[in-house]
Each structure stands twice: as structure tokens, then as C-alpha cells.
Specification:
Elements: H1 9-38, E1 43-49, H2 59-66, H3 84-92, E2 97-104, E3 109-116, E4 119-125, E5 130-134, E6 139-140, E7 151-156, H4 163-181, H5 183-188, E8 189-194, E9 200-204, E10 210-214, H6 219-237, E11 242-246, E12 254-257, H7 267-270, H8 273-299, H9 312-318, E13 334-336, E14 342-344, H10 354-363
Parallel strand pairs: 1-3, 4-7, 7-8, 10-11
Antiparallel strand pairs: 2-3, 4-5, 5-6, 8-9, 9-10, 11-12, 13-14
């Protein structure tokens, strides 16, 4: 027969003590947690990231979303009855909230950590609807508290949650990020326009050109070509000479001149203008002579020769001098005498015509006759 094992009283006591202590700890923890859960909150703290730089959402709005609009008396509600998960879901549903965490610490303080979205571009739709878009391509409505100045994209069609809508969002975000990453283009490009084909046009700050950019393929090369065109062409001939700049073609910029545009003057051609005028006048004279000869042949009348041209001096000499005009003699006036008779006053003597006397003197010689 096998020997019976002896029961160790010491082991039994150890197991008993372990069970009793464990049960006591569990009971103490449960009772402590119940006591803590029955207590009220000491305070509520709302933390918003970048709240000093951006003001799209305020602390009051967070409190309204999580507490006030839900009808919760947070300071008189036991901690165990607070719906922390529900608060997080309500706050995260706000379009301006990128992330949220809600919890209660050991000091019975309710903490709400909120991260607000930062817009990258402002979009103006074709239906006059305007909104923002951030780096995650999420749409945010305009804020009533704060106006944020950023890149503007206009004439945007309705963006839906389908493949075409997400593709357009990616292209807009890619183009705007490329413009804002460069200091020159961020200062030069004032607006991005979406055309009917879904491609892009750029409006510059300096110059009145319309820049046809196309899609976002080879984007870096297009900006480099445009910068070289600015530097080598527009800086030399002027920024108002072209109306449209097309960047859609690889390795080139197609420029369309403005309508009131005169090209560069060729100095060699301008110096030949006086020769062209002489040739034109000679051709006109030849045509006139040919017409006169044809008329003379038909009428058997010799054609009149063209009078020789006269110089200015000879023309001035041959110009007839104006003849002096003799003034009419005044009429006689009658004045009454004292005895009632009228007296006729003789008209003043006429001026002698000295020309006749001169002619006579020149015709006949003078003789001196001796006295008798």
C-alpha cells in the first residue's frame, strides 16, 4: 500500500491568506472607484492647438457642442455618468476639427484637446458657393469668426465624392502647393482659374497676360519655361506686348501678341522710305503722260508738254504786283450862307499823275530859252 501524503498546514494557510488579500484589494479598488465615480468634476479645460494664430473655432463652440447643446450639467453630474465617447464624436463631427481627445484626470478635471484644420486654398465655385480646403483635401465652410487669406481658385465645378471629384482635388492641391512653395510664384500668381476642360489658367500680379497652364503634368518644367520667358523676353520688349501665354506645349512658351501692338521697326527699311516715295511719284507721272498721249492720238492733237518746274525765286519774281486802287473823290457839300444862298465848295484838287510827267520829261529834252 502506498503511503499517505501528509497535508501541509503551512501551505493551506498561505493559499488562504493570498485569497483573502486579493479579495480585499479587489473590494477596495471597486469601492474606491465607486466613490470616485460618485464624485463631481472640479473643472473643465478646453485646449485648442494653434488657437493664438488661427481662430476658426473657439472654446465656447467646443463647450456648446460637447456640453451645453446636449443639456448636460457637467459640474453637477457624477463622473461615472459622463459620456466621454459621445463628447468626442460630437466635437469630431465639426468640419473645422481635425482631431479631438476627451478624458478626466485624477484631479477630476475634464480635458478636451482639439486640433483645428488649417486651410490651404479657398475655392470659389461656379454656383457662387465658397469654401476652404485643407492639406487632407477636406472641405470646410467659411468661418463666422475669422477670415483666412490664402490662395484662391475660381470657376470650380461642383466637387463630388467620386473619382472625378477626388482627382480634381488632388490637382488643385498639387498646383497650389507648388505655387506657395516658391517665393516668386507665390507673389506673382494672384489667382488660379479652372476652365471648362478641367485644366488651369493663371492670373499674374505683374502683367495683364492670361497664362494657360493646362494640367499638372510637367509642372516644374512649365514654371521654369515661364520664368525664362519673363527674364529673356518680357524684360526686354515690355510686359504689355502679349495677351496670352500658353505653357501646355513641352519645352516652349507660345505667346500671342496683344491687338494694339506694333512690331519692332527695321531701320534699314525705314531709311528706304524716301526712295519709295520718289518711285511712286514717277510712276504716277508716267501714267498721266500715257493717258495724255492716248487722248492726243484719238483726237489728232499733239499732247501738251509738261511745263518745266519753276524755282521758288523765279516764281516770286514773275508773280504780278497788285495795282493801286484809286479812291473815289468825296462829294461836294452845300452849306447855307447868312443871306440864305448856298455856296458850292470846290472839291479838293486831284493828285497829279506823276508817271505821265515823267514819261514826257524822258521823251523830250529840256531847253533853256534866252529872254528877249
Amino acid at each position: 500500500m502506498a503511503a499517505k501524503r501528509k497535508i501541509s498546514v503551512r501551505k493551506i494557510l498561505q493559499v488562504f491568506v493570498t485569497v483573502v488579500v486579493s479579495a480585499g484589494c479587489i473590494i477596495a479598488m471597486v469601492s474606491a472607484s465607486r466613490i470616485e465615480d460618485s464624485k463631481m468634476l472640479s473643472s473643465v479645460a478646453v485646449h485648442i492647438k494653434n488657437d493664438k494664430k488661427y481662430h476658426f473655432i473657439e472654446e465656447k463652440e467646443i463647450m456648446d457642442l460637447a456640453v451645453n447643446n446636449r443639456g448636460i450639467d457637467v459640474m453637477n453630474t457624477p463622473i461615472s455618468h459622463l459620456d466621454v465617447k459621445g463628447m468626442e464624436q460630437v466635437i469630431a463631427a465639426d468640419p473645422w476639427v481635425a482631431g479631438v481627445q476627451v478624458f478626466v484626470d485624477n484631479d477630476r478635471v475634464l480635458h478636451m484637446y482639439v486640433m483645428q484644420r488649417i486651410p490651404v486654398v479657398r475655392i470659389f465655385g461656379r454656383d457662387s458657393h465658397s469654401y476652404y480646403m485643407d492639406a487632407t483635401m477636406s472641405m470646410m465652410p467659411l468661418s463666422e469668426n475669422y477670415v483666412y487669406y490664402t490662395a484662391a481658385v475660381t470657376n470650380v465645378p461642383e466637387i463630388k465624392d467620386d473619382s472625378a471629384g477626388w482627382a480634381l482635388r488632388k490637382q488643385i492641391l498639387k498646383l497650389v502647393n507648388a505655387i506657395q512653395a516658391d517665393t516668386f510664384w507665390s507673389a506673382q500668381i494672384s489667382q488660379v482659374i479652372v476652365d471648362s476642360a478641367g485644366t488651369f489658367e493663371l492670373l499674374p500680379v505683374l502683367g495683364d497676360q492670361k497664362i494657360i497652364f493646362g494640367d499638372t503634368t510637367l509642372m516644374k518644367e512649365k514654371f521654369n519655361n515661364l520664368f525664362v520667358f519673363y527674364k529673356n523676353v518680357l524684360n526686354r520688349i515690355g510686359w504689355d506686348k502679349y495677351e496670352t501665354l500658353d505653357l501646355r506645349f513641352k519645352g516652349q512658351v507660345v505667346a500671342s501678341p496683344a491687338i494694339p501692338y506694333s512690331g519692332p521697326v527695321d531701320k534699314a527699311v525705314s531709311t528706304m522710305n524716301w526712295i519709295n516715295s520718289i518711285v511712286e511719284t514717277e510712276a504716277k507721272n508716267d501714267n498721266k503722260d500715257s493717258v495724255q498721249n492716248a487722248v492726243a492720238k484719238t483726237t489728232n492733237v499733239p499732247a501738251a508738254k509738261a511745263a518745266p518746274k519753276k524755282d521758288a525765286k523765279t516764281a516770286a519774281k514773275e508773280k504780278p504786283k497788285p495795282k493801286p486802287v484809286a479812291k473815289a473823290a468825296p462829294k461836294k457839300k452845300m452849306k447855307p450862307q447868312a443871306n440864305g444862298k448856298e455856296v458850292h465848295h470846290a472839291a479838293p484838287p486831284k493828285a497829279k499823275d506823276n508817271s505821265k510827267e515823267k514819261n514826257k520829261k524822258q521823251a523830250t529834252p529840256k531847253y533853256v530859252y534866252p529872254e528877249k
